[in-house]
Amino acid sequence: MSWQDVSEDLTSWLVLTFCFLPLIILWRHRTQPELRPKGCRRLGLPADESNLHDEFDPKYSEGVPAGTHDENGLPSWRIKALFTYPLKSCRGVELQTSDIVATGLEFDRQFVFAQDSAEGWNTRTLRNAGYQRLALIHPEIWIPDPSVVDYDPNLPEIKSEGIMIISYPRPKPTTHLTSLFTKIGIRTGFLNPRLSFSIPLVPPDSSEFPLIPVKIWKDKPLAYDYRTTLPPSLHAYLGFSPSTSPVSLFRASSAHTRSIFRNAPREEVLGFQPITGFADAYPIHLLSLSSHRDVAAKCAYTIPRLSVLRFRANIIIQGPVAFDEDHWKRLSIAGVEIYAACRTVRCKLPNVDPITGFRHAVEPDKTLKAYRRIDDGDRTNACLGMQLVPAVQEFVMNVGDEVMVLERGVHRYIKMLAPGEKVEGV
Description:
It is a single chain. By secondary structure, the chain is α+β, with helices and mostly antiparallel strands. The chain contains seven helices and 22 strands. The chain has an eight-stranded mixed beta sheet. A five-stranded mixed β-barrel has the order 6-7-11-12-13. Strands 1-8-9-10 form a four-stranded antiparallel beta sheet.
């Protein structure tokens, strides 16, 4: 064989290699098939719809009289939007209607990420340094629906009372070549820029999901450990090594909920002691659009469009003038009595943009602290929004429901207590 023949063979081999290598790499990292659980329907509004599509309209900066109706015959003070946040600190699910259960909106803050440490498993949220990537994790709730064609009560999806699909951005490849072809694959549509996996909404009766203590603030409730369901690519996206900085996913247990005291009405008043899952302190968080617009206007110098979504409220209302809710004690929503337990004391979590995951260095925390440190119970931190405790444990709430104030009064925030610690005078 001549040198020319060898050279031609080598050239051909190199050409074939560089032609097919991208295809091989892309095939190995190809888009996962879309997960569509059998026998279920997706909870919430379609992805391209939102009741907050006009949240930046200047009209929401102005209050209107309570008890009146608008040109469409709707109550002037009403629910503008509803959100449940099944996976704490991750993207919310916007709803048109929601069942309210003992822990708040159904599914709200029932799942949380936690990191292993010398003290055990500690919950991790957008507050924690390095966890702003949680904002770009999107959970979907799929619940059983007997009306769909493939519904079967024996399906595992039905036995687990539905499933949650969790998607997240595809991690950046570790090599330059793989990175290049991954970009090509995404741009050509061969690869999905997001990866996903699914988990049961309610753990089946097995040892696969053991109950383990998880620390949230000063509580350590037992929760189901879902770590076996987490794919390695999720660890890669979060930027933590499974061997050196283990991260797990936990599901709240209905038998090990956290009882709420502090500012919450007591069992003697309600007939039951309020409880929650992985919410910080109270079942429901309410925020007024006019109050938010006031804050957003003061932040416009650096964040021109500060979305109300940064504050992760369950109920967003329209109608009252800015900060009218600061003094609400009892209200009615769709005829159901609800206690305004206390003001919502804010941390720096809203500094994270829920769309991009970018953490702003100072805003809106700086602006809030400049004029919203209004509660004598905590003059260090600002307040925006109200924490609610319904007087009944089960009812239905809808977008458009009327909001009425039944009682006004004075609020004084009570800070976090250690287990067994009592509030002076209570």
